[in-house]
Amino acid sequence: MAVERIRTGGCLCGAVRYEVRGEPNQSGLCHCQTCRRITGSAFSATANWRADQFQISGEIRTFEKRSFYPVCGSRLFYFLQDGVEVFLGTLDDAPNAIMPTVEVWTVRREPWLAPVIGAIPHDKNEIPFCRSL
Predict the structure, then answer these.
(1) What is the chain's alpha carbon radius of gyration, rounded to the nearest angstrom?
(2) In sequence order, what are the residues at sequence separation of 6 or more whose Cβ sits closer than 8 angstroms to the Cβ of residue 35?
(3) CATH code of residue 89
């Protein structure tokens, strides 16, 4: 029997901790304007797990379904109807062996960024991955 992988993560100051069990059902990069603004970067890198694969401890605040810890300012995850989309940079271990399976809003990808080999590109948001514009 295979051992289920457990990944842990949290905010910058450690007041919020979480764990995800098993492998994500989807992972990817988003180049939309909202993801750029909330990460302060050219894209966001996230992965989605089912709700039953996710546990959290600590107090969070949520704005438009995006959760963060207000003391240190770490953006952590986005609650979905049946799961959670975790910002991969908040995982404890790097590299985390999660390859992007999709890349959305590629029309907004910076020209100096190469497409992710093996990820399915989407010009905009034709799939339920990034909830932004």
Answers:
(1) 14
(2) 43, 44, 105, 130, 132
(3) 3.90.1590.10
pTM over 0.85: yes
Tens digit of each residue's pLDDT (9 = 90 or more) over 76-128:
999 988 999 999 999 999 888 999 999 999 999 999 999 999 999 999 876 55
Tokens read off for 32: 């939309």
Query: Would you give the DSSP letter of residue 107?
Result: G
Q: Is 52 left (phi over 0), alpha (psi -120 to 50) or beta?
A: alpha
In percent, the amount of the chain with pLDDT more than 90 equals 78
Q: What is the pLDDT of residue 133?
A: 39
Strand partners, 128: none
CA atoms lying within 13 Å on the CB side of residue 38 = 27
Q: Is residue 1 part of a domain?
A: no
∠ Cα 102 106 109 (to 5°): 120
Determine phi and psi for 97, rounding to 5 degrees.
65, 25
Rounded Cα distance between 103 and 31, Å, is 8
The answer to whether residue 96 sits within a structural domain is yes
Domain residue limits at 80: 6-122
For the chain, the domain total comes to 1
